[in-house]
Amino acid sequence: MAADGPAWASTGRLGQQLDLVGIGEPMVLFQVPPPGTLRTADTAHISVAGAELNVCAAITSLGGRAGLLSRVGNDLPGQRVLREMELLGVSREHTVVDATEPTAVFLRETPSDGRRQVTYYREGSAASTMDASDLTRLWASHRPRAVSVSGLTAALGPGLPDLIRAAAESAAEHGVAFVLDANLREGLPFLHRAIDTVTAVLPLTDLLALGTDESVQLFGTAEPAEVFAAARAAGASEVVLKAGADGCWYEGERGEPAHVPAMPTRVVDPIGAGDAFLGGYLGARLSGAPTRASAVLGARLAARVIQSLGDTQGLPSPEEGALMCADALAITQ
Hints:
The protein contains ten helices and 14 strands. The chain is an alpha/beta fold. It has one domain: Ribokinase (UDP-N-acetylmuramoyl-L-alanine:D-glutamate ligase), CATH 3.40.1190.20.
């Protein structure tokens, strides 16, 4: 595929219509400032996070419009999630309040040895009960230009694989780009369910984002050329390979792997970098930028996020983000 990309990647600048709807679970995050442990800390930083919400927030930070299809509980964490969505500019139109199930929360600490420790409380959460019937909200009003899901979401509840498969199928029917972040975590309960779901929707995937660790799980290799070839053979139309501190690999003009290094910066909290990268990459592609420019913008957003606690706190204002997106469009090589 040429670097100028498919039709969905060149249909106008961000913010003119609904650019993205993410499908997933937002959570309240209690984070001990590093270096510290939950056992000894006196304070914690409170924010809201979740892979798809983070990607949506990155899109809105670039001046785009995004919404989250989800469920939250009728509880205090749910109220916090809805408030943060509003502050981030992420539409609540596709999110419903569940009167019976709770909103998920999670705890994060980074001890002095640098090992991140995360404890989740999301079993039986409102979002984990979603199924294919929730998809009716996606097409009830404004049609988005793209739909984004992650493999992790498929592991959260028994109805979520069907929801993700139905989202991929209906996106294709509506001419909407289907964006898949593999997001496969070692030790994740029902990891096999996540891998099976990701594999099943690859033939309908317009943009696949995955890390080098996830590429090994899916394709048995982390070598960029082999990953791109395997993903294309599985049906994915476009692929970007995230390599953490080593930057990323994107597809050049003839589909060959090309590299963009990570931006040098002070690292406070590396969590959320991958979501910010995907939001930046996707936002640039939706604006018509070529793959290299999109990878550069993704790297710039990731570098901002890791300088702050929380998954979205380092994102730019929409005004600054729109300028960053315009700069990306000026990158020609």
